[in-house]
Design brief:
Length: 650
């Protein structure tokens, strides 16, 4: 009998017994053994040991010669388990549950087998975690215990008694009187008052809100201390003291370069900043300037901070910039129906002419396009997101409708939008001089001809973007217009004006379905079609136009069945963007449009195309693949067209 007890003390079950707080308490409450010898009955049943997880063998059955059945939980055996929390339904916030799930050891290992010792350790760690989380919610007297309910799949229970919710009896924010008439607003921003729960998240959020409010209200050198909390366990209450030193109210002074600044001087940073000298100080303006400097792509690190100005009411802005590699080499390979194979190579120095004066050398070699160009681009030109561009280019473009050898000089100033600072209004003003030798055919006979055009143009655009995303809009609308007065010399001088209007709208139907539509109208007034250079006429068809048709394939054709372009156009598109599964979406669409010889666009005789697309929603925008087919094709149109690009079709 003694040897049997010794075996149990060394086995895994005994280790589980010592780790069980209920069993340990049971052992600790046993009376001290008597000094009198106790007679032992070898046939008597053994006393139960609660919590050990072991059923004693039936010795009586063994003594009578029957087969003894022994059920034992092996402490070293590994079993899959489940777990749950009890006792917090009335007090737990969604944030507490989320944090517990994120940090829980039981949850992290859920589904993995564990032995008794591992379950005990995980349960104790989660008990400590839950105690800490409840204390953060204001339950300072919370008690958490654990137990394991045996079975083929043990249930680990983390049982909590939250206790009383502690509340503040007094909240003192010292020093706000120095902020004058803004003090009340600062106190409201902190938001913690007497009788509020002693909630750690609310306190941290209040300190952050107060810091932000003070910075936005013109106090650049304000300091907000850490809240000092004194807890009264007996009364289940607490007090809070917070010290604030607002400092002086300031206005913006100068932008100055800090020691070690190596990219832009203070003058160019001033062009990028949205604030000017004399504006009330606002910390948000510094954050905006910091993001804009990073967005230039010319800096690897940015330091922007408030520094004392020349007078007590002025704050200067100190800037220190570290350079990023300024050169970029880019290449591109592609193939498009109607555009052929194409290879592009470019070299850019983004700060060859400081500040932000970039030079790009670009070349294109393709089966239907060859181009060489030199582009000067000055970003943030006398203002945020204003771009000055000058370009010299020589190109040879072969299309089904025409063949053009072109030399051009162009310059423009524009206000751009981008994914970092999407803007409602954008515009551009430009000028262009073009010499173009172009081949087309005489419409009546189909005989080829070549003509040289000298063209001067003043293109102007104005766009409004009321959508919610630049690359993947889901609601709102866009409206844009382009007007280009042009003079052309081909035998004699004549003038005409090109006008194009574009609009699109986006309407969510559900969280995963968006209906999108697009309209486009264009007109050329002032000259007949045959006088206008073929490369300046309107064309339709392709991935950014009417899908299902080849590039520029829609509209009137000559006797050789080649498109000849026109003086007006109408296009529309309707598609349903369905987020199908994960990052993938399905987009059925129908497009329509046509090119007309009259100067006014019509709403009839549409060439229709339909199809379906696939979208992969990446971190930098959707990647689209559209497959379309013409519904009423003209002779020679292909039955299938495929388009691949970045971003939605419109």
């Amino acid at each position: 009998m003694v040897s049997c007890v010794g075996w149990l003390a060394l086995g895994g079950s005994a280790a589980f017994l010592l780790a069980d707080p209920i069993a340990a308490q049971a052992i600790g409450q046993q009376e001290a053994p008597s000094s009198e010898p106790v007679p032992l009955d070898p046939t008597a049943p053994l006393a139960p040991l609660p919590g050990i997880g072991v059923d004693w063998p039936d010795l009586g059955a063994a003594a009578t010669g029957e087969t003894a059945t022994t059920t034992r939980t092996d402490g070293a055996a590994e079993l899959r388990y489940s777990w749950k929390i009890e006792g917090i339904d009335a007090v737990a916030t969604p944030l507490l549950r989320q944090r517990f799930d994120d940090l829980s050891t039981l949850n992290a290992n859920d589904g993995s087998p564990a032995n008794a010792a591992q379950l005990d350790r995980r349960a104790r760690e989660d008990a400590e975690l839950l105690t800490t989380l409840l204390r953060g919610e204001g339950y300072y007297d919370a008690r958490v215990a654990t137990r394991v309910e045996p079975g083929t799949k043990p249930m680990v229970v983390v049982a909590a008694e939250p206790g009383t919710l502690y509340r503040f009896t007094d909240v003192t924010v010292k020093g706000l009187a120095a902020a004058g008439d803004r003090a009340a607003g600062f106190r409201d921003a902190f938001g913690i008052s007497a009788n509020d729960p002693v909630n750690a998240d609310a306190i941290v959020a209040g300190e952050a809100a107060l810091t932000t409010k003070i910075g936005r209200e013109g106090f650049p050198f304000a300091t907000v201390g850490e809240s000092a909390i004194v807890v009264d366990r007996a009364a289940h209450t607490a007090t809070l003291d917070l010290a604030v030193a607002p400092g002086g109210l300031r206005r913006f002074g100068s932008i100055v370069a800090l020691p070690g600044n190596r990219v832009f001087d203070a003058g160019h940073v001033r062009e990028i900043a949205r604030f000017t000298t004399g504006d009330p100080y606002d910390a948000i303006s510094l954050d905006d300037l910091r993001r804009a400097l990073i967005q230039t792509g010319l800096v690897s690190s940015v330091e922007v901070r408030a520094v004392p100005g020349a007078t007590p009411d002025i704050v200067d802005v100190g800037v220190k910039l570290e350079p990023a590699p300024p050169r970029t080499v880019a290449g591109e390979l592609g193939y498009g129906t109607g555009e052929g194979a194409r290879a592009e190579l470019s070299w850019t120095h983004r700060n060859l002419f400081p500040p932000e004066g970039a030079l790009t050398l670009r070349s294109v070699l393709g089966t239907q396009e060859q181009l060489g160009s030199v582009v000067y681009r000055r970003s943030n030109f006398h203002g945020r997101d204003r771009v000055l561009t000058m370009q010299v280019a020589a190109a040879h473009t072969q299309r089904t409708a025409y063949d053009a050898k072109t030399f051009s000089l162009a310059a423009g100033l524009e206000r751009q939008t981008n994914i970092f600072f999407q803007k409602a209004w954008t515009w551009s003003l430009g000028g262009e001089l073009v010499a173009s030798d172009e081949r087309d055919v005489i419409l009546a006979t189909g005989a080829p001809r070549r003509r040289t055009f000298f063209i001067g143009a003043l293109p102007t655009t104005l766009n409004y973007d009321g959508s919610d995303d630049l690359l993947n809009p889901t609601r709102g609308f866009r409206l844009g217009g382009r007007v280009s007065p042009e003079l052309s010399l081909q035998g004699k001088v004549f003038g005409y004006t090109r006008v194009q209007l574009d609009t699109s709208a986006y309407q969510p139907v559900s969280t995963s379905v968006v209906v999108a539509g697009r309209l486009r109208f264009g007109t050329i007034v002032g000259a007949p079609r045959d006088q206008i250079a073929p490369s300046r006429r309107f064309y339709a068809g392709g991935g950014a136009s009417v899908r299902g048709y080849a590039y520029q394939a829609i509209g009137p054709r000559d006797v050789n069945n080649d498109p000849i372009g026109g003086r007006s156009l109408t296009e529309f598109s309707i598609e349903t963007r369905v987020k199908a599964f994960g990052n993938f979406g399905i987009v059925p669409f129908i497009d329509g449009g046509n090119i007309y010889t009259s100067p006014l666009p019509k709403l009839s005789d549409f060439q229709l195309g339909a199809g379906v697309g696939v979208r992969y929603y990446s971190n930098f925008g959707p990647i689209r693949i559209d497959v379309g087919t013409p519904l009423n094709p003209q002779p020679g149109d292909s039955r299938i067209a495929v388009y691949v690009s970045l971003g939605q079709a419109f």
